[in-house]
Amino acid sequence: MTSSVSREAYAAAAENLSAYAADTPPATIATTGDEILAAADLLRREPRLRRALADSSRAADDRAGLLGAVFAGKVGDDALGLLTALVRGRWSAPSELLDAAERLGVDALMVSADRAGKLGDVEDELFRFGQVASGNPALASALSDSTADVARRATLAEELLAGKADPVTVRLVALALRGFGGRGFDSSLGRLVELAAQRRDLEVAYVTTAVALTDDEEARLAAKLGALYGRQISLKVDVDPSVIGGVKVRVGADLYDGTIARRLGEARQALVG
């Protein structure tokens, strides 16, 4: 959602989600999130429907009526009400309506995990699954293969996560496999990690080291980064022996690379020059 018009439309729907979730059990919110994501998946597959629902030349009531005709009986009343709030908004492009529907489903799932006190676990599980996948070339290839059936890839992920992850994590991994917001699998997982942290009012710092940090080292690094950025930090640590020593930290677009591998690379370039 890049335009101000689309952001305003999403903000109104997000307010409806907050009001709905305030007195709704987490499991019910999760079911609603699943239904919204199912509706978003249909919008992805049906561009004509997507265009019709985002067409600002049509009256809001007409767009809402079309939505109801398509989804009545296919999703619950709560999901339909939240989707109707989206469709009544103004959208700069049909693709932005699709992005908003996916985001609304994700937000509902994350609200359900937050209400259940498990959002921090979901955040960590998404990150760790990405690390496991990237560390196994065969698995990474199987999960990222956009030519393979999404349902089969989702089944593979579910089997890997069975009994090891929260149900919300499994649902979000399945969304990442479809391409959250049009991104690739790795990028989708990263964005979902950041949204989970954002909902907990945290900034994500991706840390790469040659050896695992101790708890004290992680606490000191998080404190320093928190002081620098003015907010609490969620560290995501990746152990990569190839960096040899030192630490690399990425926060948003900021990169701090103090690894020995980087310094060796600079020395090599200087010698070549």
From TrEMBL:
Pfam (any one): OSCP
Transport found in the keyword field: yes
The keyword Membrane is annotated on this UniProt entry: yes
Membrane topology: Peripheral membrane protein
Primary site of residence: membrane
UniProt cross-references to InterPro entries, sorted A to Z: ATPase_OSCP/d_CS (IPR020781), ATPase_OSCP/dsu (IPR000711)
Cell location: Cell membrane; Membrane
Recorded superkingdom: Bacteria
Molecular function GO terms recorded: proton-transporting ATP synthase activity, rotational mechanism
Keyword set, alphabetical order: ATP synthesis, Cell membrane, CF(1), Hydrogen ion transport, Ion transport, Membrane, Transport
Regions annotated as coiled coil: none
Recorded family membership: Belongs to the ATPase delta chain family.
Role of this protein: F(1)F(0) ATP synthase produces ATP from ADP in the presence of a proton or sodium gradient. F-type ATPases consist of two structural domains, F(1) containing the extramembraneous catalytic core and F(0) containing the membrane proton channel, linked together by a central stalk and a peripheral stalk. During catalysis, ATP synthesis in the catalytic domain of F(1) is coupled via a rotary mechanism of the central stalk subunits to proton translocation. This protein is part of the stalk that links CF(0) to CF(1). It either transmits conformational changes from CF(0) to CF(1) or is implicated in proton conduction.
HAMAP family: ATP_synth_delta_bact (MF_01416)
NCBIfam families, per database record: PRK13430.1
Protein name: ATP synthase subunit delta
